[in-house]
Amino acid sequence: MRKRLIPLCLVLISQLTIAQRSYQHESPDGLLLEGKALFELKNYPGTIDKLNTYKLQSRDADGIQEADYLIACAVFEQGQKNADIVLKEYLDTYPDSRHADEISYRIGSVHFGRGEYQKAIFWFQEADIDLLSTEQQETCSFRLAYSLLQQGEMERARGYFQRIQQIGSSYREAAAYYVAYIDYATEKYDNALTEFSRLKEFAAYREQSLYFITQIYFIQNKYERVISEGEALLSSYSDSQNNAEIHRIVGNSYYNRGDEVKAINHLSQYVKETDSPLRGDLYILGVCYFNQADYKNAVNGLGRVVRENDSLTQNAYLYLGQAYLKQNDKNNARMAFEAAATARFDEQVREVALYNYALLIHETNFTGFGESVTLFEDFLNDFPNSKYADKVNDYLVEVYLTTKNYNAALASIEKIRQPNTKILEAKQDILFQLGTQSFTNVKMDEAIQYFTRAIELGTYNQQARNNAYFWRGESYYRKEDFQKSISDYRTYLNNSRQRNTDSYALAHYNLGYGYFKLQNYNEALSRFRQYADLEKDQKAATLADAYNRIGDCLFYNRQFAQAEENYNRAAQVQPSAGDYSIFQKGFVLGLQKDYQGKIREMDRLVRDFPESQYVDDALFEKGRTYVLLEKNTEATSTFETLVRQFPNSSLARKAGVQLGLIYFNEDQPQKAADAYKKVISNYPGSEEARVALVDLKSVYIELNDINAYTNYVNSLGGNIRIEVSEQDSLTYMAAERLFMRGDNEAARQSLVRYLQTFPEGAFNSNANYYLASIAFGKKDYNDAKQYYVRVLDSGDLKFREEALARKAEIEYLAQDYATALETFKQLQLIADNPANKEAAKLGIMRCAQYTDKQQDALIAANELLKDSKLSPELIAEARYVRAKAYIAAGQEKEALEDLKEISKDTRTVHGAEAKYLLAQLYYNTNEDSKATEVLEDFAKNGTPHQYWLARGFILWADVYIRQGDDVQARVYLNSLQNNYKGNDDIAGMIEDRLSKLKN
Question: What is the C-alpha separation between 98 and 107, in angstroms, rounded?
């Protein structure tokens, strides 16, 4: 075989090359070359290692600069976190480097990778793109364009992307995609559609291109194309992150094409897959549900729309109102219509909503906060040419009659310049209702004014006019103006067409009392008998009372047998309140000389009615009867019982005198003296004490011990006068005569002179009492109180009860409740007058409540409620106080029955607050359904006391909040905020809850 020969020269050259390579590896220049080679091979750790070694050995500045460049690039290519720092340090070290553009490009790329687009833009622009490699130029341009896009500089970004699209290679299709996206974002939909249509042929861009194509069709209202493209997308890409949005626009498209069932399918899926669905789409979904009669889901969808104050919310509220109405939820419907009616974004929506809102208030008889009566008028003012105008005019009169906010209704009616007959008829009834409202709140003067206006208006509403006579008569009676009361009752009876009504019968009863108070017993007797014949309820308390009054009238006419018969009837009608009947029957028996019968009836009263106010009277009459029967032992025992059990009664003083007289007549002078001395010491200043002192003189004469009597009288210190000087007596009597004639100013001057002339006069307490009465009548309460205190300090018991009563009243009027409470307690201990007894209990109850002495208030309320003749308004107040006391003591269950009873009449402030408290108690015990039931009734029946109705609405919102229905809570709170006009703490309560709901 022939061998190929290698020339020697070639061998020699090869040896020389090997020797040179070895030298290079060992020299600094060799390290630099090897580092460059490793960089080309993308062995960046090796690059960094070799070049760092090179830098330690080399003294070549240019070589070291090149090594630093390659190291910085290797750090960048490795993606080290500090790459930008290393690159920037290179530029700082070599600001004039020929690699500055490449370094800036790489720094920009580091920031780009971090999403720091503003910094990336800066560094990309620092690089001269023409000095970069072709590959770097395209990458830099793409990254710069993307950064600009992210910063919102779409036109500049589009310029770069478009250039890349034209001449690029690696980023051509990506650039084309972003050009199309920018055209889409800048509403150049035709351009975007053309480009996306081309890009959909590329797998990488197919899904997103189809997505944007579908979006563009939706924007262009090409709903058929949206549906076909969207359904295809959902079928092809079942797990795409775009599917929620596709469901949204496809659902919208079906809605616009009239296919609401498919619209619901897609939009409900969109809502399900989205954390924060768009309000507009929720609105469409709610409308679709509504049109498909799925009102529950309609409410759920539309309820999520009403978060902003805009036209969409206004429209949503209109649909919500209709949806609630379809579910017969009129309260929520009313709230929704109100919200739509108070917004001003869309007048057509407002017109329909306001009409529906007003109509609902009319139909449900709902009382809001000032809008109930004026609502239809507001509608006519805002929409005079509305297609609903005729209906509204018809409803307007009826609203006047059904609303409970009568003040607003009256103010509204009085704005009408030429009211027709229907309006005036409604006005007359409203005036009557305002009168009864004032009467219920114990504002008698105000009630009389309203009733008078109703009467003076004429005969538009004959029933209201006649009823006004009845209640004005009752108001006059409460003011003790009996003549006017009688006149009005007689007019009422003369005008009454229906004579078999309860009111007709009651008018005879009230008329009887008017005559009775005027001591016209014959007329009173006739009226009470007419009432008794008319009364249908044979167990009525008023019937029992009427029989008692018939008995009284017969008694005053000395027809004792007939009087006794009627007292018996009274006791039979109402045995539980028969104490007065029994007492009067016994008294009549005594007048007929049936003394044993009288004693029997008095014993029966004491036995059967131990708490009766007539027990002390019964004991006294029983004792007197025993005296008449000459049964002194029994008489003594009875009088002693009276003194022991009722020491503060005026009859106890009389019983003490009787005891002294009995002992004296039985020739027991020492016992007689002791009895008289007890009267004198226990009741100093009383008339009985004066009588006892006079009789005591006879006892000591009998004992033949006048010195002892003189010493005893001297020991009294002048507290009791037996003899009065003639000048003292005449001066006082002249002043008293002026007072009795009603000449108060002359009497005042004369009484003052008397007190100045006789500062220790025998009639000192009388004079001070009359001066107090004059000052009290003039409402000079400070002066009156000083005089009453002097009466009380004098020790004279003659005026003690009345002085205490007036002093307590003055302190109460001055809101000095703590002092008044103690005075009322003193009055309760000594009062004989039934009116003062009631006033004492009432005063204690009120003052105890105001001073937060709930236990005292509770006891006083219970005492008041024992009185079967207590007026309805005082019964309601006592029940209210008792309920509040129970609540304060944490005994809510005990308060329930009282709250239920008094909350039936929300015309009174007590009734209105009770209604709220009842609902609050149910809420506190998690009985939301019961609380809601109470609040619904409160809203339906209304109240003039708007504060408590507002509290009820806030509580209603609290119920919804606890149930997780924030939408309804917001509706109630917004309604209250829009309509409540009070300047109190309600606004703060509303804001607090709305703020929590918003958060």
Answer: 16
Q: Specify the range with the lowest mean pLDDT, choosing from 137-151, 490-504, 657-671.
A: 490-504
Helix (H, G, I), strand (E, B) or coil at 486: helix
Report how far apart, in Å, the C-alpha atoms of 212 and of each of 208, 253, 900 are: 6, 15, 65
Determine how many CB atoms are found less than 10 A away from the CB of residue 344. Answer: 10
What is the Cα–Cα distance from 193 to 188, expressed in whole angstroms?
A: 9
Query: Any residues with CB less than 8 A from the CB of 539 and at least 6 apart, and which?
Result: 573, 574
Distance in angstroms (rounded) separating the CA atoms of residues 409 and 942: 13
Phi then psi for residue 592, to 5 deg, are -90, 10
Long-range pairs of 85-92 with CB within 8 A, sequence gap ≥ 24:
none
8 A C-beta contact, residue 806 and residue 780 = no
Q: How far is Cα 105 from Cα 300, in angstroms, rounded to an integer?
A: 55
Six token digits for residue 464: 């209201």
How far apart, in whole angstroms, are the C-alpha atoms of residue 542 and residue 740? 36
Contacts of 420 (CB under 8 A, 6+ apart): none
In this structure, the number of other CB atoms found within 10 A of the CB of residue 34 comes to 18
CA distance 77 to 102: 13
Per-residue pLDDT band for 294 (boundaries 50, 70, 90) equals very high
Q: Could you tell me the sign of the dihedral formed by the alpha carbons of 15, 16, 19, 20, in that order? A: negative
Half-sphere exposure of residue 348, counting CA atoms within 13 Å on the CB side?
1
Lowest mean pLDDT among 317-326, 408-417, 526-535: 408-417
Helices (H) and strands (E) in the chain, counts: 54, 0
The string of pLDDT tens digits covering residues 339-351 is 999 888 999 999 9
- Residue 18's pLDDT is 39
Kindly report the length of the chain. 999
Q: Measuring CA to CA, how many Å separate 569 from each of 536, 539, 548, 583, 988?
A: 15, 11, 8, 13, 60
- CA–chain centroid gap for 44, Å, is 77
- As given in the structure block, the two tokens for residue 573 are 């009608």
Q: Is 742 helix (H, G, I), strand (E, B) or coil?
A: coil
Give the model's pLDDT for residue 650: 86
Q: Give CA–CA dist 471/448, Å, rounded.
A: 8
Domains of the chain, start order: 408-497 (1.25.40.10), 498-607 (1.25.40.10), 614-724 (1.25.40.10), 906-999 (1.25.40.10)
What long-range pairs does 634-642 form, CB within 8 A, spacing at least 24?
Answer: 635/662, 636/662, 636/663, 642/616
Cβ–Cβ under 8 Å, residues 803 and 792: yes
Cα-based distances in Å from 424 to 377, 401, 448, 458, 585? 16, 11, 20, 9, 54
Structural contact between residues 210 and 233, judged by C-beta atoms closer than 8 angstroms: yes
